[in-house]
Amino acid sequence: MDDLTAIKAAARKAAFARRKAAFDACPAGAAGRLSEVLAGYRGVPLSGYMPIRTEIDPLPAMAEAAAHGPVGVPVIQGAGLPLRFSLWSPEGPLREGPFGAMVPETDDWMEPEILIVPLVAFDSRGGRLGYGGGFYDRTLQGLRAKRATLAIGFAFDAQEAEALPLEPTDQPLDMVVTESRVLSF
Q: Structurally, how many domains does the chain consist of?
């Protein structure tokens, strides 16, 4: 294991602990600020995510956005591959996907222009630390090569870190929405 891998692992461990504490203390309605941000992009195809473990829950904001345009959720295709996005609706039937995240029962592929991105930690410059699989980095790189693609991190305030161990392949966030604020980069 190289130094950067060990540093990232330690940063993830600390961030997971901060996220769990924030999740346990989270008031209902944390997605309200995300809904406010997304209101400025009505009808633009977007992807959210199905929350797992202690991730902040974007589902209320996704349901609101789905009334105005297409909303998808990520579906993992395999290790080393970018994500694909399946059309999601608040009432649609779901099945269990990789890593325990729920995905639509029937895949109806779409391509988002806005991605609401889950994360383990973020910094004040738009850096993001994910789970380590590189799925969002590969996906954002591919989408951004085709067109402008907005990456919005959704997290608890407590997930902010001073500095993150980032690599050149790590794709930056354009914005982070927390339960109390909106940061633009």
A: 1
